[in-house]
Amino acid sequence: MLNERRILVIGSEGQIGTELMWAIGNRWPDCFLVGADLKQKQSGAWVFVQLDAMRAGELLEVVSEYRINTVFLLAALLSATGEQAPDLAWELNMQSLFHVLKMARDGYIRQVFWPSSIAVFGPTTPRDNAAQSTVCEPRTVYGISKYAGELWCQWYHQKFGVDVRSVRYPGLIGYNALPGGGTTDYAVDIFHKAVRGESFTCFLAPDARLPMMFMPDAVRATLEIMDVPAERLSTRMAYNIGAFSFSPQELAAAIQRHKPDFQISYAPDYRQKIAESWPAVVDDSLARADWGWQPEYELEDMVRVMLWELEKKQVSPSEG
Ligand code: NAD
Ligand code: SER
């Protein structure tokens, strides 16, 4: 564990980054925090640097200037946008990871968090309860980059002792930022439509069941794994972490329990094939055993809080 954390979050303006920045400040109030993104900063009192994570020189400059010792690397292209821009997805997802792993290898930083995804799995993976170590034959550029990234993290750890930690996030649902191009992001959009009293057309089929998680649990997992004594981590590939699974029709039914007039229709597109290639449930027993992972939110809790928070924003949009 680090005494004085000096943290850089790359991709701080994205869906996870915007929530992680606040959570870091709460968990480690004395830390020095820097956000970085290709986009402009939206809010927050921390130092912010606009940079391109594919440029090693820009990253090293920030790490040196602010004496950073911990990096959370969140910048990436996700599954759906990755299929539209495969070259960029591969370049961004891999180059940024290599730059950060090499800075850790060379002693500039002491600890790295880099997220993987359920996208490492593919159609040959068992669909129910996909194990921590199982067949991984991803069919998306995004999934290939995440699985390759996991192997590189393991390699840098074994070869150079790099303290890199990772989890395979399921689809994440939060209310602070708009989604960034994932296959599971319908499960965020649907809430925005529901609170505006609009109907929703889903790009997945009604029964496309996938593993999902409410953002506060994902953020807590991210911070918890960074605080675990190294000897408790039995893998430096990414840990499966799970919370609950649902299909679009199950999510719509849960929303209709609060908003009976809400309507959903279905127009599956290329993202349906991606969803079909992923498991419906993951087995996260290794994360539970190694570092005590435990989700707090069930589907019904998540739906209630999402509707409540987005309705508050409708009333006072300036509050973020
Ligand atoms: P996001 O798309 O919302 O955010 C990514 C951020 O990275 C954006 O703010 C973007 O501007 C920034 N970025 C893109 N290119 C950049 C570059 N060249 N330099 C600097 N910044 C750049 O994504 P997210 O949902 O916050 O996901 C963050 C991480 O978590 C990604 O690695 C993603 O693969 C992983 N993940 C997300 C989910 C999910 O459901 N959201 C699930 C599994 C894994
Ligand atoms: N939620 C992500 C996506 O759909 C999975 O990593 O791309």
What do you see in this structure?
The strands form four sheets. Strands 3-2-1-4-5-7 form a six-stranded parallel beta sheet, with helices on both faces. It has a three-stranded parallel beta sheet with strand order 6-8-12. It is globular and about 55 Å long. The protein is an alpha/beta fold and 320 residues long. Helix 6 packs parallel to helix 8. Helix 1 links the parallel strand 1 and strand 2. It is built from eleven helices and 14 strands. Serine binds next to loops.
Share of β-strand residues: 15-25%
Secondary-structure-based class equals: alpha/beta
Distance between the termini: 33 Å
The CATH superfamily of the largest domain appears as: NAD(P)-binding Rossmann-like Domain
* Assigned CATH architecture of the largest domain: 3-Layer(aba) Sandwich
Q: Name the hetero compounds present.
A: nicotinamide-adenine-dinucleotide, serine
Overall residue-averaged pLDDT value? 96
Sheet with most strands: strand arrangement: 3-2-1-4-5-7
Determine Rg (CA atoms, Å).
19 Å
| CATH fold category name of the largest domain | Rossmann fold
Global geometry:
globular
Number of helices: 11
Q: How many domains is the backbone divided into?
A: 2
In CATH's first tier, which class of the largest domain applies? Alpha Beta
Number of strands: 14
Task: Give the biggest beta sheet.
Answer: 6 strands, parallel
The H-and-E topology, N to C, reads as EHEEHEHHEEHEEEHEEHEEHEHHH
Summary, kept brief:
This protein is about 40% helix and about 15% strand. The chain is of the alpha/beta class and about 325 residues long. The two termini are about 35 Å apart.
